[in-house]
Structure formats: C-alpha cells, structure tokens
Amino acid sequence: MLKILVLHGPNLNLLGLREPEIYGKTTLIDINKELMGFAKKEGFELTIKQSNFEGELIQIIQEAMENYDGIVFNPAAYTHTSIALRDAIAAVNIPVIEVHLSNIYKREEFRHHSYISEVAEGVVSGFGKESYFLGLRALINLLSKKAKK
Ligand code: DQA
After folding, report:
1. How far away, in angstroms, is 92 Cα from ligand 1 center?
2. Strand-pair category, 45-50 with 3-8
3. Going by C-beta distance under 8 Å and a sequence separation of 6 or more, which residues neighbour residue 142?
4. Pocket of ligand 1 (CB under 6 A)
5. 23 an active-site residue?
6. Which of 6, 54, 101, 130 to mutate to test the pocket of ligand 1 (most atoms within 8 A of CB)?
C-alpha cells in the first residue's frame, strides 16, 4: 500500500479563521478528515502533519524519505522565502507535489515566485481545499506509473 504524507506549513492551522475570503471557511481539521476519508476510499495510507516552524518542516521532509513514497506539501509563506526547504526537497529522492489553496499568481507579486516549484514534481494552485485532492491524485498516478516501470 502506498504511504503518503500531507504536510501543511505555517499558519495553515488557522484555516477557517484566517482570511476566509481567500482561504475559505473550512478548518484544517475538517480538511484533514476529508483527506483521511479520501485515503480510505482510494486505498492508500495517509499521514498528515502541520508545522509553523521552518526547521521542523525540514526535519519532517528529511525523515519522510525513510517512511513515505511521496509528499503533498503546502509550504504556505515559506514557498516564497525558503531556500532551506527547497534544498531539503532536492535532497530527498521521493516526489513532492506543491499545493496552494489560493492561486498565488493572482495575488501580490511577492507570492509569484516559489522556491519550491523548482524542485517539485508539479504544482496545484487556486482550487481551495480541492488543491490537496488534486495533488494527491497526481501523486498517486505518478507513483503507480513508477511502480510499473
Ligand atoms: C498559501 C499561499 C501562500 O502565499 C500563503 O503565504 C499561505 C497559503 C495557499 O495555500 O494559498 O500561507 O500557500
């Protein structure tokens, strides 16, 4: 069974309360519940983690190499600032799909650049919580293609 990690970056623990006009009213707990339901239905093993700390996210990514087949990652604001997270992803040999709730290209200019996209397998941005499900589908497709090779 595929083992997948969904990783949420800083401030995403505040979803539902935080700028609901941009990020929606659904809480992270609700999204996580739906993601767990999706995993059960699709038949993969899902672990979900969230951290507000850059170093902790790096640690989680480094350790993920041993424990998961791939990661769906919303790096939140670190998307636009963190070379250290970029390097962590480049260092591990498992695929990472970058996801964002909002369309980062439709927003402020400082959100238009992602350090993560350069090392991600692909990016999903702008579909609200659906971005996570699209990211998971893409990752599963990718991993099952790899398994057949
Ligand atoms: C975000 C977009 C980022 O620019 C922002 O800093 C976030 C959330 C998104 O999911 O739309 O915290 O990653």
Report:
1. 23
2. parallel
3. 70, 95, 121
4. 11, 74, 76-77, 79, 100-102, 104, 111
5. yes
6. 101
Q: Please, are residues 38 and 136 in contact by the beta-carbon 8 Å criterion?
A: yes
Length of the chain: 149
pLDDT > 70? residue 149: no
What is the 1 CA–ligand 1 centroid distance (Å)?
30
| pLDDT tens sequence across 78-115 | 999 999 999 999 999 999 999 999 999 999 999 999 99
Mean pLDDT (the chain, rounded):
96
